[in-house]
Amino acid sequence: MIENIENIWEREFGFVFPRSEGSKETFMRRYVSFATQKELEKDIKMNKPLDCYVSVAFYKYPQNMEGWLRAELFFDFDYNENTKLAYVDALTTYEVLLSDFGLENISIRFSGSKGYHVIVHDFTPQILGTKERRAIVDYLIGKYKIETLDMAASCDVKRLRRIAGTKNSKSRKLCETVKRSRELWKRKK
């Protein structure tokens, strides 16, 4: 079961497909939008994409990536050989966001491949721009010695992230929530 996408009608989606049947070459279809969670789930079931992504950004016109409204606060932790360090860094960030920043709705997700994502679902920090996000990243690295944080991805207000509950086509592992601060929102249709 895939995650419930908050304000789905304001999100851009991207899907990876094989170029042709049996081909190892792929292409990404972007600038897709859905009005409801049911539409998204039906599309995934019918088209069977290899990989499924949703924007961290909310847009007035998501199918064109226009009219940027806000974006989830998103942190990307990658590892090469040290999966434990990436998880420790993600967990430290999660705890710092709760304690030092007073945020409440936070999840840690295994990306299905090379690391973890920490996503803040609170509304207030969603209005932060790249400069303010960079200040938070610098704070985490400077004060808490976070090593595996992908700075560029974590400051990008138009980034796509993998949809929890879908598999990574390369690793065949599930992107899944491994920790969350409290029950998040109710399903919105």
Mean pLDDT: 92
CATH topology of the largest domain: Alpha-Beta Plaits
Name of the level-1 CATH class of the largest domain: Alpha Beta
Helix content: 25-40%
- The run of helices and strands is EEHEEEEHEEHHEE
Q: Provide the low-confidence segments as ranges.
A: 183-189
Helix count from the secondary structure assignment: 4
Largest sheet: spatial strand order = 2-1-3-9
Number of structural units classed as domains? 2
How far do the termini sit from each other? 16 Å
- Largest sheet properties: 4 strands, antiparallel
- Structural class call reads alpha+beta
CA-atom Rg in angstroms: 16 Å
What fraction of residues sit in β-strands?
25-35%
Q: Per the principal axes of the C-alpha atoms, what is the gross shape?
A: globular
Q: What's the CATH architecture name of the largest domain?
A: 2-Layer Sandwich
What does this protein structure show overall?
- This protein has 189 residues and is of the alpha+beta class.
- The chain has two domains: 8-69 and 160-169, no CATH class; 71-155, 2-Layer Sandwich (Alpha-Beta Plaits).
- Helices cover 25% and strands 29% of the residues.
- The radius of gyration is 16 Å and the shape is globular.
Helices, strands, pairings?
Blueprint: E1 13-18, E2 26-32, H1 37-47, E3 51-55, E4 57-61, E5 66-71, E6 73-78, H2 83-99, E7 106-110, E8 115-120, H3 130-144, H4 151-155, E9 160-162, E10 176-180
Antiparallel strand pairs: 1-2, 1-3, 3-9, 4-5, 6-8, 7-8, 7-10
Short note summarizing the structure:
The protein has about 190 residues and is α+β, with helices and mostly antiparallel strands. The protein contains four helices and ten strands; from the N terminus they run ββαββββαββααββ.
